[in-house]
Each structure stands twice: as structure tokens, then as C-alpha cells.
Amino acid sequence: LEGQDKERPIWLYINSPGGSVTAGMAIYDTMQFVDCDVGTICMGLGASMGQFLLCAGAPGKRYALPHARIMMHQPLGGVQGQATDIAIQAEQMAYTKR
Fold this sequence. Notes:
Largest sheet: 4 strands, parallel
Number of helices: 3
CATH superfamily: 2-enoyl-CoA Hydratase, Chain A, domain 1
Radius of gyration: 16 Å
Number of strands: 4
Mean pLDDT: 90
Number of domains: 1
């Protein structure tokens, strides 16, 4: 879309319960990488990573429809393994929270 017209914003319509942090961060990185503005519109549900992407829209171009629901929460995940593995995973969760 950026290749067609760098002056026109790209609009990302969000209806998401969330999901993979790494997949969401790949979308976020792409939103930051393109030169044109990326606007976001929440329709339905914007939860977890969906909420994060909604908030990552260009300033002044972040919207939610009247019946949309937005949910933000602390990072969560299960950890298992050796104590050193758990420490590494906890460190990664703290990094993601920042």
C-alpha cells in the first residue's frame, strides 16, 4: 500500500482477542517501518496484542467504534523447566512488559 501512495495513510481494522506476542511485534515493527501513517480502528474486540496494535496507530488516527471493547492486561505466560530456564523466561516477560 505504501508503494501505491506514500501520502495516504494505511488503515488497520482490528477485531482481535490477541495472540502471539512475536507475531504482534512483527506487525508493530512494520507499522513503524513504513513511511506513511498507519491508522487503527477497533471493531468488535481489541484485546491483548490487539489493544497494543490499536494504541500503536498514528497520533490522531486511533479510533474505536461505539460498541467495540478494548482490553489491556499485564503480560502473562506459563513457565516450566530448570530454574535457569525459568529465570530466562521471567526476564523475557519483564522485557516484553517494557
